[in-house]
Design brief:
It is built from 15 helices and 19 strands. The chain is α/β, with parallel strands linked by helices. Helix 3 links the parallel strand 3 and strand 4.
Length: about 475
């Protein structure tokens, strides 16, 4: 953990007692601050009380005694309207920050030259963040990975000259980090998202821009218009310290993807081949890998080392995660695909797909995926989306109403094992929320992984699936 010693002796208000909120409260207390914590949820307040924190109803507190309000990133700062705690803080002239800002201040005080990689973007930031950390670890660096991915920033070891912090930063976190100045700032892409929290695309893009605006080296995607505009501004100001990255074969970018190779315009003789990187299938992962390459090269890692690390990257849980294989049949967990746009990435990455889809449907359903149906051998429908998805698929591709995930895994496995395709894929990529049958997408993915593990164990013991011996 990183104690927040820059606020030693100060009284700090903290609102929002989820995972990162409690982590931040602990870091503040360890650093010597007096912390008053509160949450709208009674359950969260009792959880904090049980862990020894002092509850203080901030709605009735004397705000003149607070040096800061530390706000959890999930609490509205501006839209659709500021939370009441935000309004009280502003009325009292109390600055409002988040945990990333506290980390940034600790770095400035402890080790201002410590390597700090910050990653943001609408899509792909978790994979890119994890991939950068993996490359650096594989080359012997001391790496602290966290932020919006996994471990809250202040639960990581403190900044140090020989330690690299690699943090994923959401737009919510950036909005609460006015001093954010990473060594390397990566902005992958910008498409409309979280507009209910940021008002409109212009404001959303401006918040994302802050992460790279003060970076020593700014690495910016140029595959969408908002990001290209940001890159153009930075290039005028930073010159060679602004690096353009594309997931396509671009004549404009400094680092780009040609086929399955990452090419650096300044190093055309040393491309990095992604052919052996199984966890980096698909065009979207080409872009993620190009950004990781750019970051690693900026930190002094050679192309050969990067290429080896890409091949050993295991990927992220629930994101095109290979969870098992039986002969030619591959089982892939993409439970994180909770909408059609996310499922599209997986469907574009494979052929002869035995697709498990469904759950609680979202607006638009899977109509946008119709052009990809020729890649699919059969669809296995589960959950509340069964009938609306069946109507979309009817007459276009074979499908089966399975109801439960366990039934879908069994049916898809039998059909895939019967297939004569070179590599049939049983793919869970639901294009739906999980809440009709699971508490979250992680639980759904864990269940799929367990079902596949059980199935593969049976196949190993019995030699084949019983259904394969039945007449059809």
């Amino acid at each position: 953990m990183t104690p927040v010693e820059t606020l030693r002796g100060e009284t700090v208000a903290l609102f929002g007692l989820g995972g990162s909120g409690l982590s931040t409260a602990r870091a503040l207390v360890l650093g010597g601050a007096d912390v008053a914590v509160w949450d709208d949820s009674g359950g969260q307040r009792e959880r904090a009380r049980a862990q020894g924190f002092a509850l203080d109803d901030l709605a009735h507190a004397d705000w003149s005694r607070f040096a800061l309000l530390v706000l959890a990133p999930g609490v509205p700062l501006t839209h659709p309207k500021p939370h009441w705690a935000v309004e009280l803080a502003k009325k009292a002239g109390v600055p409002i920050v988040g945990d990333i800002e506290l980390f940034v201040r600790e770095r400035a005080a402890r080790a201002p030259k410590a390597p700090f990689v910050a990653v943001t973007g609408t899509n792909g930031k978790s994979t890119t963040t994890a991939l950068i950390a993996h490359v650096l670890k594989e080359t012997g660096r001391d790496v602290a990975l966290g932020g919006n991915i996994g471990v809250p920033a202040l639960e990581l070891p403190p900044p140090a000259p020989d330690r690299v912090h690699v943090l994923e930063c959401s737009s919510y976190q950036i909005d609460l980090a006015p001093s954010l100045k990473p060594s390397l700032g990566l902005l992958l892409n910008i498409t409309p998202d979280h507009l209910d929290r940021h008002g409109d695309l212009t404001n959303y893009a401006a918040i994302k821009e802050r992460l790279v605006a003060s970076a020593k080296i700014a690495i910016v995607g140029v595959d969408d218009e908002p990001s290209r505009k940001i890159y153009a501004k930075l290039k005028d100001r930073l010159g060679a310290s602004a690096v353009a990255v594309s997931g396509e074969d671009s004549g404009f970018a400094d680092i780009f993807v040609r086929g399955r190779r990452i090419v650096a315009r300044a190093e055309p003789e040393a491309p990095v081949d992604l052919a052996g990187a199984r966890a980096l299938r698909g065009a979207h992962n080409g872009q993620n890998a190009a950004f990781a390459f750019a970051a690693a090269r900026a930190l002094g890692v050679g192309p050969n080392e990067i290429s080896c690390a890409f091949r050993s990257f295991p990927g992220l849980a629930h994101r095109m995660e290979e969870v098992g294989r039986n002969g030619r049949v591959l089982f892939v967990n993409d439970s994180k695909a909770t909408n059609a746009d996310a499922a599209e990435k997986a469907l574009l990455s494979f052929r002869q797909i035995h697709w498990i889809a469904g759950g609680r449907p979202k607006a638009g359903g899977i109509e946008s995926l119709r052009p990809l149906l020729p890649r699919i051998a059969k669809v296995y429908l589960i959950g509340e989306a069964t009938e609306p998805f069946a109507r979309t698929l009817n007459g276009s591709v074979p499908f089966q109403r399975c109801g439960s995930l366990s039934a879908a895994v069994e049916a898809a496995a039998v059909d895939a094992l019967r297939s004569d395709a070179p590599e049939p894929v049983v793919l869970l990529s639901p294009a739906c929320a999980s809440f009709d049958q699971f508490v979250n997408f992680e639980a759904r993915g864990d269940a799929f992984r367990a079902l596949v593990k059980g199935l593969l164990a049976r196949l190993e013991t019995e030699g084949s699936h019983p259904a394969l011996s039945k007449e059809t």
